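Input.
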Amino acid sequence: METIQIKAFGTEAAEASLAPLRIDRRKPTAHDVEIEILYCGVCHSDLHTARGEWGNTIYPCVPGHEIVGKIVKIGDQVKNLRVGDTVGVGCIVDSCHECDYCKEGLEQYCEPGMTWTYNSPDEHLNTHTLGGYAERIVVDERYVLRIPENLDLAAVAPLLCAGITTYSPLQHWKVGPGKKVGVVGIGGLGHMAIKIAKAMGATVIAFTTSEGKFVEAARLGADKVVLSTDEAQMAAYQGKLHFILDAVSAEHDINAYLGLLRVDGSLALVRAPAELLPVSAFSLIPGRKSFAGSMIGGIAETQEMLDFCGQHNIVSDIEIIDIQQINEAYERLLKGDVKYRFVINMASLKK
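Output.
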């Protein structure tokens, strides 16, 4: 297969810093689009993968799965996209198309396994996929998303991971008017959950361990903010919530939050703490409660999320950086020193 060589930023080893690389992309085939990347969001997954912390990294690694750009070339059989269109690419760039989940629009649960935007087998080039910290990317049109024209492009980028990661469970558990929804953790995911749940019409209660985040949570749209270390404040919501979205990656007492659910209430994890989270049977049985997990959405649901955010003028709170600042940004990410997502201006790759 013919390839083009482009500039990128990535790492050759777990212990190495990210640095300039030259990588190959395939030339667009019949159903492909080639996208000039304008912005790429920075996700915790990028850091963990680049540093080999999940044990499955293929090097060289070029992270990035929150991609916004403009189409510069299309294959001769592309039907619904045009050169010049502003588009996005999220976490998925391929799947089997044949399993029950793919046919249901749940490509994220593809039985043979979806193809991640980076660090997955690349059947086109017989190597592995390389992500959005790059000049361009070539993607099958079926995995390309339209960006609402009214939204700031840089601030849209994190919607392609953080946005859909929070929208999908809120939608699945039918969050809306008349529902009381808890959001645990006010960070890159939690801040999006507050905005989206509020736009869905729910009453939103934010839970934090920091009194310093009370004003922030209210600014983001929370109706109430609870200090989770205060037993009296927690007790006030015992048995009151219909749904809780848990966006905390650190060890925490999951039973304390399960106790806040009403009968038939559900708590869904969207982050993955390294430690086990012990759950008491009696946190679930007496109230017919559910403890669940959720990841990203499929392509159709991700487009639905983008359209919803366009209708409600929802974007992520971001700090724009140059690609040359990525190693510093990773260190700040570990400290929680960003409100709330880094986004790379990919024009800086030309410096």
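The radius of gyration is 20 Å.
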